[in-house]
């Protein structure tokens, strides 16, 4: 440790002994990430988080989660040191509670309490964040930042997208520069799916300054491992609008996700061009040639099967019947066009020019009686069920992928996802590094999901889905608050449940 007027030694750090945490006095910093208790020149106890600069970034998810647990214990311990007694601490603090005893990493380094730049000769070269350019090295380090880790044990994309969008909106509100890291993302590279995110005019901080908590740290890292710290009860308590009722309480949180969607949901050039063409084609089919009659409408239908079951009690072990979706679509058409004709009668032509556009993780949905006449949201990437779908024609203006040899019966299951590209001898495990074949197949699955969302979100006048599926909630965000909630363009048929954001 560097000395100033007198030695500034760490008092101790937190170690995990089963379910108990204890403070252990030592004279040197540990070689693993952990909160540490320190003393200032006056002998007053403070605490910070020590992440050795040579640590791999990002840290393992369990390590980030452990740091947040330990931070709580250490913060209470230091507070007790100041009062010279053990006292009851608040069970929950406000989301923006500032612990006066916490010292940010950069401040601790400036006081010689953490090694910081003195250890940079031992720092391994880190992978760049998504969109990070070499030119940024000439810029100053951001004053405040939030870095989102695209890393989760959840095979699905929906929860990650909702968290990513919401994190971006939150970062904008807090004046934080926003970065994305895809080092260990199960789907591969972020830029395989999206255009690079907007980059701030400052550079990311050293990785060891990025902390999962406390939330008032200058540089935050957000991941699925710490979702309850960033988007848990305190987040909802602070941002829900207590003056409103029901789903209208959620508008501020909805708007966070909407900001993230508008900034980040920009598909790769090839897929974006396909989506634009597909939406225009679907919209053209709703146009009436007779100027005296109204155009038809697009009713988007999102059907999630696989390992995502409904909230509604009677269907919780199966799925909402398909005729519930088609019946709701019929009700929407009836209420919209029943008396909109030239003489106040039913507008038959508008109904005839209306479309049902379906997206589902279950290929058998498209062949069902309810949707055999409906249009697929997209046909660029088709996930087949057994028997395999027919091979595409020898020549087609758009390159289409048919995932043969893989049965996708019943929808998206996590086990099926983790087993993509693996032989039977290799167990399916989220922790195993993916092979090149696995990443290729995962990319197809991810692109199919994103294309479905993009077409439904962009083409639909009305949407029918089940709120138990994260994709359903994402589609509401894509429609926007006014269209989806206020005007009722988004319809949930899974019980009397409302829109919800990040699951924690």
| Beta-strand proportion | 5-15%
User: From the alpha-carbon coordinates, what is the Rg to the nearest angstrom?
Assistant: 26 Å
> What value does the average pLDDT take?
85
Main β sheet profile: 5 strands, parallel
Terminal CA distance: 40 Å
GO molecular function, one term: alpha-(1->6)-fucosyltransferase activity
GO biological process, one term: protein N-linked glycosylation
Please tell me about this protein's structure.
- This protein is α/β, with parallel strands linked by helices.
- It has three domains: 1-125; 129-266, no CATH class; 279-466, no CATH class.
- The chain has helices at residues 61-83, 105-110, 158-173, 227-231, 233-239, 251-264, 269-284, 322-337, 348-352, 414-419, 436-459, 470-479, 481-486, and strands at residues 10-17, 20-24, 34-39, 45-50, 145-149, 177-181, 219-222, 298-303, 355-360, 375-376, 381-383, 401-403, 462-465, 490-492.
- The radius of gyration is 26 Å and the shape is elongated.
- The two termini are 40 Å apart.
Q: Which terms summarize this structure?
A:
13 helices; single chain; disordered N terminus; 31% helix; alpha/beta; 3 domains; 4-stranded antiparallel sheet; 504 residues
Briefly say what this structure is:
The chain has helices spanning 61-83, 105-110, 158-173, 227-231, 233-239, 251-264, 269-284, 322-337, 348-352, 414-419, 436-459, 470-479, 481-486; strands at residues 10-17, 20-24, 34-39, 45-50, 145-149, 177-181, 219-222, 298-303, 355-360, 375-376, 381-383, 401-403, 462-465, 490-492. With 504 residues, the protein is α/β, with parallel strands linked by helices.
């Amino acid at each position: 440790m560097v000395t100033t007027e007198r030695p500034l030694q760490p008092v101790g750090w937190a170690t995990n002994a089963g379910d108990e945490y204890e403070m252990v006095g030592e004279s040197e910093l540990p070689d693993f990430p952990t909160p540490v208790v320190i003393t200032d020149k006056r002998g007053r106890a403070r605490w910070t988080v020590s992440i050795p600069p040579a640590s791999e970034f990002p840290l393992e998810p369990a390590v980030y989660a452990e740091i947040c647990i330990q931070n709580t214990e250490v913060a209470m311990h230091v507070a007790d040191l100041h009062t010279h007694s053990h006292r009851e601490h608040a069970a929950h603090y406000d989301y923006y509670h500032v612990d006066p005893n916490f010292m940010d990493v950069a401040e601790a380094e400036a006081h010689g309490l953490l090694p910081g730049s003195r250890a940079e000769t031992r720092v391994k070269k880190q992978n760049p964040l998504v969109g990070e350019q070499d030119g940024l090295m000439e810029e100053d380090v951001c004053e405040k930042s939030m870095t989102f880790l695209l890393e989760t044990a959840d095979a699905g994309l929906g929860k990650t997208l909702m968290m990513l969008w919401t994190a971006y909106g939150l970062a904008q509100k807090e004046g934080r520069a926003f970065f994305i890291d895809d080092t260990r993302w199960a789907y591969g590279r972020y830029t395989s799916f999206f255009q690079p995110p907007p980059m701030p005019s400052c550079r990311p901080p050293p990785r060891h300054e990025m902390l999962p908590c406390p939330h008032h740290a200058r540089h935050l890292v957000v991941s699925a491992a710490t979702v309850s710290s960033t988007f848990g009860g305190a987040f909802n308590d602070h941002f829900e609008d207590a003056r409103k009722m029901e789903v209208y309480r959620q508008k501020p949180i909805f708007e966070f996700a909407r900001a993230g969607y508008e900034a980040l949901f920009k598909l790769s050039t090839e897929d974006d061009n396909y989506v634009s063409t597909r939406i225009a084609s679907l919209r053209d089919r709703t146009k009436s040639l007779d100027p005296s009659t109204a155009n038809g409408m697009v009713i988007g239908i999102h059907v999630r099967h696989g390992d995502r079951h409904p909230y509604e009690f009677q269907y919780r072990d199966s799925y909402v019947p398909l005729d519930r979706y088609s019946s709701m679509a019929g009700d929407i058409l009836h209420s919209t066009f029943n008396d909109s004709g030239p003489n106040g009668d039913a507008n038959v032509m508008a109904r005839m020019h209306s479309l049902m556009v379906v997206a589902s993780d279950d290929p058998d949905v498209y062949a069902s009686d309810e949707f055999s006449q409906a249009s697929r949201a997209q046909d660029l990437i088709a996930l087949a069920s057994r028997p395999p779908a027919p091979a595409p024609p020898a020549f087609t203006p758009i390159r289409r992928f048919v995932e043969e040899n893989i049965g996708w019966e019943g929808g998206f299951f996590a086990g099926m996802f983790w087993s993509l590209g693996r032989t039977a001898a290799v167990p399916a495990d989220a922790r195993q590094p993916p092979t090149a074949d696995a990443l290729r197949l995962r990319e197809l699955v991810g692109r199919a999901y994103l294309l479905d969302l993009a077409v439904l979100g962009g083409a639909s006048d009305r949407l029918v889905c089940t709120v138990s599926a994260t994709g359903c909630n994402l589609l509401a965000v894509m429609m926007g608050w006014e269209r989806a909630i206020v005007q009722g363009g988004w319809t949930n048929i899974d019980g009397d449940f409302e829109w919800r954001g990040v699951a924690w």
